[in-house]
Amino acid sequence: MGAVRKVATYLGLGGEEQYDDSYDYGYEEEIEAEEEQWRPASERAARRWRAVSEPSKIVMLTPRKYNDAPTIGRYFRERQAVIMDVNEMSSAEATRMVDFAAGLAYGCEGRIERIAEKVFLLAPADMEITTG
């Protein structure tokens, strides 16, 4: 092969060369990772959570002070539905707790529903809530 042809081939201007198809360039993983990045976040969460085979649980919590918020967050991030009864809290702390719970649900792509006076349901993204 002449020098000009070698340079043209090197620059991608020459004829096609034979490549070893058995070599794994790792592009498939990059493409899958890039596709995963552009999936809707709720779909990514559902795909991640479907891999876990634990049954769904509902946790009933009655926080007495705002410092109990991390407990609610821990259960909810573990994909457990949380029923939060804030009747035992002062109005100011109950408002703060509901604000925290709403932010938590929003940030984890879940839902928060009021089910009674000062009682709220925090549902993970993969849980369907129906009313009858």
From TrEMBL:
Asked if the Swiss-Prot or TrEMBL record annotates the protein with the keyword Ribosomal protein, the reply is no
Q: Could you tell me the Gene Ontology terms of the biological process aspect for this record?
A: cell division
State where the protein is found: Cytoplasm
Please state the protein's primary subcellular location. cytoplasm
Q: Which residues cross the membrane?
A: none
What InterPro entries does the annotation carry?
A: Cell_div_SepF (IPR023052), Cell_div_SepF/SepF-rel (IPR007561), SepF-like_sf (IPR038594)
Do the record's keywords include Iron-sulfur? Answer: no
| Pfam families referenced in this protein's UniProt entry, alphabetically | SepF
Keywords assigned: Cell cycle, Cell division, Cytoplasm, Septation
Q: Which domain of life is it from?
A: Bacteria
Instruction: Share what the entry says about its subunit structure, partners included.
Output: Homodimer. Interacts with FtsZ.
What is stated as this protein's family in its record?
A: Belongs to the SepF family.
State its role. Cell division protein that is part of the divisome complex and is recruited early to the Z-ring. Probably stimulates Z-ring formation, perhaps through the cross-linking of FtsZ protofilaments. Its function overlaps with FtsA.
Q: What is this protein called?
A: Cell division protein SepF
Source species of the chain:
Planomonospora corallina
* Upper taxonomic lineage: Bacteria, Bacillati, Actinomycetota, Actinomycetes, Streptosporangiales
